[in-house]
Amino acid sequence: MFRPQIFRRVARSARIQAPRAAAQAPYNVVASARSFSSAPIRFNKSSNDEDDVHLATTASEPGASGDHEGQYARIQDDIRVEYPEEKDLPRSLPVQGRGGSHFKRTLASFSLDGRVGVVTGGARGLGLVMAQALVTSGADVALVDMNKEEAQRSAQQLVETFKEENPEADKLPKVTAHFGDVSSPTSVNQSLAEILKVHGKVDNLITSAGFTENYNAIDYPHDRMQKLWGVNVDGTYMWAVAVAKHLMERQAQGSIVMIGSMSGSIVNVPQPQAPYNAAKAAVRHMAASLAVEWAHAGIRVNCISPGYMLTALTKKILDDNPDLQKRWTSLIPVGKMGRPEDLMGAVTFLSSDASLYVTGADLRVDGAYTCT
Ligand SMILES: NC(=O)c1ccc[n+]([C@@H]2O[C@H](COP(=O)([O-])OP(=O)(O)OC[C@H]3O[C@@H](n4cnc5c(N)ncnc54)[C@H](O)[C@@H]3O)[C@@H](O)[C@H]2O)c1
């Protein structure tokens, strides 16, 4: 009673998805599929339903169940996006109207009062907005970026925005900008030394410096692949180690938040980006591994894995490939891309005492993309 009903339902849906399939049914394939099953076949063997079902399994030849086969889960080799030149990227601005002191009741444990946070890649994009979340929550912040000029402008703007939104504030946040190439060990040490001179200590680290590019795997230029892993993986690791060492020397607790990506758990389609996906998987597992290694020292390490967020970089990819936007949003259960400010709560939670027992976690902020 039960099994034929299921078969009928599956057969019906296969017919709806693949109207061409019945017309192409290769009978030898169906016959060979039967030999795999020890269960008696209870439905009518001559029915088209049976053929439709089998054509949608590994029993059939590729393409036998219709043109739709795997079409939403396929890489498109011709999509190629190089990371743009600095001059081709628009500037990011701090978010307006989201900060300000307020008197709404909330948990005191979310406050970052008295803390100092470092944000790598903080001049722009997600890093800048997450830096703003730290500032709004009470922290002083050091922005580290390859683009020092932009980091300086952003640091100034963060303070200006804070002033506008907190006209009564008796103390302004200290926000500084520092040159740093996260992929160079010397540069990491130099930037940290500079930050310690100005701020005296570091309690929080957010590693947001990173980038993606789209090349099919066969043609990926080796030097670009090394650069990509150098920034996304080595850069995250070296900053985490430098800050953990400082915290251990101070015998202070701290929190490190690594910015991974949903690409560390799924394979994006249709743009080809195997090295980026692998890099972000490395970041996610690096957070878990270091969380275990440094738990004894009170240093928490977590990962935030954003989905598609509309920053200057994603905008550039969408401008170069206009039909991607529809394909991306069609794959997101929420149906929308995120905005950088959608990370403000997540980063504040993981940086603050509100998450004291959360370490080694991967917090996905992706509109449920990775659930499907
Ligand atoms: N935008 C998204 O949709 C999205 C989604 C998931 C994950 N991410 C990740 O979030 C992070 C930030 O992305 P974004 O969209 O804000 O990018 P972005 O290009 O807007 O900002 C990245 C910043 O990092 C800086 N940077 C690059 N290389 C550096 C280096 N070697 N040393 C120091 N700074 C360097 C850049 O100058 C820039 O200011 C990246 O790690 C990215 O992989 C982004």
Automatic annotation (TrEMBL):
<keyword id="KW-0560">Oxidoreductase</keyword>
<keyword id="KW-0521">NADP</keyword>
<dbReference type="GO" id="GO:0050664">
    <property type="term" value="F:oxidoreductase activity, acting on NAD(P)H, oxygen as acceptor"/>
</dbReference>
<protein>
    <recommendedName>
        <fullName>NADP-dependent mannitol dehydrogenase</fullName>
        <ecNumber>1.1.1.138</ecNumber>
    </recommendedName>
</protein>
<dbReference type="InterPro" id="IPR007110">
    <property type="entry name" value="Ig-like_dom"/>
</dbReference>
<dbReference type="Pfam" id="PF13561">
    <property type="entry name" value="adh_short_C2"/>
</dbReference>
<feature type="domain" description="Ig-like">
    <location>
        <begin position="272"/>
        <end position="372"/>
    </location>
</feature>
<dbReference type="InterPro" id="IPR036291">
    <property type="entry name" value="NAD(P)-bd_dom_sf"/>
</dbReference>
<comment type="similarity">
    <text>Belongs to the short-chain dehydrogenases/reductases (SDR) family.</text>
</comment>
<dbReference type="InterPro" id="IPR002347">
    <property type="entry name" value="SDR_fam"/>
</dbReference>
<dbReference type="GO" id="GO:0050085">
    <property type="term" value="F:mannitol 2-dehydrogenase (NADP+) activity"/>
</dbReference>
<dbReference type="GO" id="GO:0019594">
    <property type="term" value="P:mannitol metabolic process"/>
</dbReference>
<dbReference type="InterPro" id="IPR020904">
    <property type="entry name" value="Sc_DH/Rdtase_CS"/>
</dbReference>
